[in-house]
Amino acid sequence: MDKSWLIRNVCEGCCSFYKPGKDEELACKGFLVLGDLTLPWDEIDMNVEEKVVHSETMANLYNILCMQCPFFDDGCDFAAERRGEPREPVRMDAAPCGGFLFLNACIDRGSIDIQALNQVI
Questions:
Q1: Which of 35, 71, 99, 115 could form a disulfide with 76 if both were Cys (CB 3.0 to 4.6 A apart)?
Q2: How far apart are CA 5 and CA 118, in angstroms?
Q3: pLDDT by residue (tens digit) across 1-10?
Q4: Three-state secondary structure call for residue 11
């Protein structure tokens, strides 16, 4: 997958944490996994209009994606909230990253199978 396509669609399109021009080497696990997936991208609906996380998909993604993410231990309030960490300040309404939201939408739509993620993680 082309990195500029990922930045445009995943980071700019879905991530509230993305800052253009900031260290481009920083990437969430979702971004990294999407870069490794070999799928017929031209056949997959990539429009992520609804940034809603459904509980079953969230639990699956959290277990296979978040726990492998470079921001899991430090820098992700979404993960800290789910771990029940008492660190301050943890936003109790913390949103997941763009990679998580993008993959969530694709899985919920049936565009990507959760098993495909297990193969590249």
A1: 71
A2: 22
A3: 678 888 888 8
A4: helix
Contact between 109 and 39 (Cβ < 8 Å): no
pLDDT tens by residue, 36-72: 887 766 666 666 666 667 667 888 888 889 989 999 9
Q: State how many domains the chain has.
A: 1
Which tokens hold the place of 32?
């990294």
Amino acid identity, position 42: D
- Distance set, CA 20 to CA 7, 52, 54, 68, 98 (Å): 9, 24, 28, 24, 14
d(CA 78, CA 86): 13
